[in-house]
Amino acid sequence: MGSSILSGTFISFEGPDGAGKTSALRAITAQIMDGLGDQLVITREPGGNPISESIRSIILDRANTAMDYRTEALLYAAARRQHLAQTILPALEADQLVLCDRYVDSSIAYQGAGRQIGEDAVAEMNQFATDGLLPDLTIYFDVPAEVGLRRIQAHRQADQVDRLDVEKTAFHDRVRAAYLRLQAADPDRIKRIDATQEPAKVVEQALTLIKQTAPRYF
């Protein structure tokens, strides 16, 4: 199944921790929400509805240090399935523009490569969870791991740092390398932005990609 059979447009934001994708999404939302109104849906993963948000709280709780890596991957996939069924698909069926903070590529990068449980295995798991639905566009905000980790240390409060943020640099290096492999393998869908640039420039480039992919909303 692909989003081409649905009338709406699905765009995901991806990147390593500290890349600034969530901040960019907020800035873009502020710029376009008045013009789009009810046509715009902003959501996130894991999360996006009450059931998926409940799963999110379990996954990211720093107290859950005993969580098995495959359990983690399965929980992400479960949250994604519920998010897709309850939030994303209804929005696309209603001809809305969906901007989502993370989607399948995150699981492949973080659990498949970062946790080293296998990129192909995680991709297959999520193929089942999503019935093959991929975004029309994925904007990948790219930063070296050390840059992203410095940003986290400088700007996030202690209660905003989750289980994945506290992983060692080698983990985040594997995550970034996986993202770059994904982008190289699917350059038509995944567009890379150098997120070490000034935030305003990053937002400008991301918004240009969105307008090019979904011009009828603007």
TrEMBL record:
<protein>
    <recommendedName>
        <fullName>Thymidylate kinase</fullName>
        <ecNumber>2.7.4.9</ecNumber>
    </recommendedName>
</protein>
<dbReference type="GO" id="GO:0006235">
    <property type="term" value="P:dTTP biosynthetic process"/>
</dbReference>
<dbReference type="InterPro" id="IPR018094">
    <property type="entry name" value="Thymidylate_kinase"/>
</dbReference>
<feature type="domain" description="Thymidylate kinase-like">
    <location>
        <begin position="13"/>
        <end position="205"/>
    </location>
</feature>
<comment type="similarity">
    <text>Belongs to the thymidylate kinase family.</text>
</comment>
<dbReference type="InterPro" id="IPR027417">
    <property type="entry name" value="P-loop_NTPase"/>
</dbReference>
<keyword id="KW-0808">Transferase</keyword>
<dbReference type="GO" id="GO:0006233">
    <property type="term" value="P:dTDP biosynthetic process"/>
</dbReference>
<comment type="function">
    <text>Phosphorylation of dTMP to form dTDP in both de novo and salvage pathways of dTTP synthesis.</text>
</comment>
<dbReference type="InterPro" id="IPR039430">
    <property type="entry name" value="Thymidylate_kin-like_dom"/>
</dbReference>
<dbReference type="Pfam" id="PF02223">
    <property type="entry name" value="Thymidylate_kin"/>
</dbReference>
<keyword id="KW-0418">Kinase</keyword>
<keyword id="KW-0067">ATP-binding</keyword>
<keyword id="KW-0547">Nucleotide-binding</keyword>
<dbReference type="GO" id="GO:0006227">
    <property type="term" value="P:dUDP biosynthetic process"/>
</dbReference>
<dbReference type="GO" id="GO:0004798">
    <property type="term" value="F:dTMP kinase activity"/>
</dbReference>
<keyword id="KW-0545">Nucleotide biosynthesis</keyword>
<dbReference type="GO" id="GO:0005524">
    <property type="term" value="F:ATP binding"/>
</dbReference>
<dbReference type="GO" id="GO:0005829">
    <property type="term" value="C:cytosol"/>
</dbReference>
<dbReference type="InterPro" id="IPR018095">
    <property type="entry name" value="Thymidylate_kin_CS"/>
</dbReference>
<feature type="binding site">
    <location>
        <begin position="15"/>
        <end position="22"/>
    </location>
    <ligand>
        <name>ATP</name>
    </ligand>
</feature>
